[in-house]
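task queued by scheduler; priority normal; single chain, no ligands, no partner chains; default sampling; output format set to structure tokens
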Amino acid sequence: MVFDYKKEYKEFYQPSTKPTIVEIPPMNFVAVRGAGDPNEEGGAYQAAIEVLYAVSYTIKMSHKGKRQIEGYFPYVVPPLEGFWWQEGVHGVDYTNKASFNWISVIRLPDFVSEEDLLWAKEEVVRKKKLDCSVAEYITIREGLCVQAMHLGPYDDEPRTVAEMDKYLEEQGYENDFSDTRMHHEIYLSDPRKVMPDKYRTVIRHPIRKR
């Protein structure tokens, strides 16, 4: 049986379209940091995604080569995720994508160490001649959050965010954005295969009791 994080942890990857409050445990990721419009053709964001997937799949397939990672089990590579923020903006200004700062990530199984990630980066460079120096191993502790499944184009996300904000107010909570707690998106649809009106994206915000 191949382990699939989306199926095993539905509370994190398959939330309702109605906002809910959830406690997110610490998770490890391979990450690339950057800035700028994610839609820029051939831009930094697209380059980051290429690196993330190359490294992630190298780790996934490691058991077929000489690298035998202790504790390894067969798994589905988790979905692409992104943490987003803009200087001087509380939350997200969707009308000014050029001002985005982002950390693009893919979750790593707990058995993957920093040393394993370094090996994978070197393997990608050796086999694909792709510079992976920007990829890093990070642990993110989100803690208490509100989340909801957004259905539709990314540009329509403010509709779902407004519902999340209304829910927070009703429940006695408020957003808690900071330098370490950011707007978070988990991408469950492949834009190359799915029309925008069918996109499924988890939106997650850090919160605190008001």
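post-processing summary
- The two ends are 44 Å apart (CA to CA).
- The beta strands are 20-24, 27-35, 80-85, 101-107, 136-140, 143-151, 173-175, 183-187, 200-209.
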